[in-house]
Amino acid sequence: MRYRHADVALAVKRLQHRHHRALSQALQPLGLSLVQWDTLRHLANHPEASLHDLAVLTFQTDQSFGTLAGRMVDRGLIERVPGPGRAVQHRLTEKGAELRAAGQELADVVVKSSFSRLSAAQLDELGALLDVALEADPA
Questions:
Q1: DSSP 8-class letter at 84
Q2: Taking a C-beta distance cutoff of 8 angstroms, is the pair 23, 34 a contact?
Q3: pLDDT less than 70: residues of the chain
């Protein structure tokens, strides 16, 4: 079968939608939304990130991420700490780190299941092809 650009774009979107639905369902028993878990995951990889940095990493606007961060601070998942100048940085609390790790275990199961029909070589090839596509100028 010869794939058209639109076919591939739709397949990527469908897979992403499937992952979002499955991850949201898997994270629900932890009391986490997908965007909350994603925030914890990015914060673990980027300690003391600014609100703007986290908004970019989680595909949120600064305003919507600010609201989300406030709720996560209230729940004791993250804390705000003074940064350089007037900047405010964020970091995981112990509770946030525990929920991030528990969520990662669930996410690993979901994603592994999604790609289970691919061989290791196919998975490597898909990853490499997506890297190439992501390097392309979107304009």
A1: S
A2: yes
A3: 138-139
